[in-house]
Amino acid sequence: MRDIEIGKTYRHFSGNYYRVLYIAVDSVTNNEVVVYEQLGNKHTVWVRPLDLFNEKVDKEKYPDVMQVYKFEPISDNLGE
User: Fold this and answer.
1) 33-60, pLDDT tens digit by residue?
2) Where do the domains of the chain lie, and which CATH numbers do they carry?
């Protein structure tokens, strides 16, 4: 599994950008989750299980998507 970096900006395959705020632990399941915020006007905070954040794009469902992973790090951190 890829390492997810706190503070790093990631591009979702749909085109939105998100900054990882924390890697947290779900108190019920004890599974790791990624806490991340959408960059831009909304600044909505989201939570997603770490394994789903690391998931590859379903190429059968989205054949035209160029990204390998649903969230891929970008070289420049936006919004800083």
Assistant:
1) 999 999 988 889 999 999 999 999 999 9
2) 9-72 (2.30.30.320)
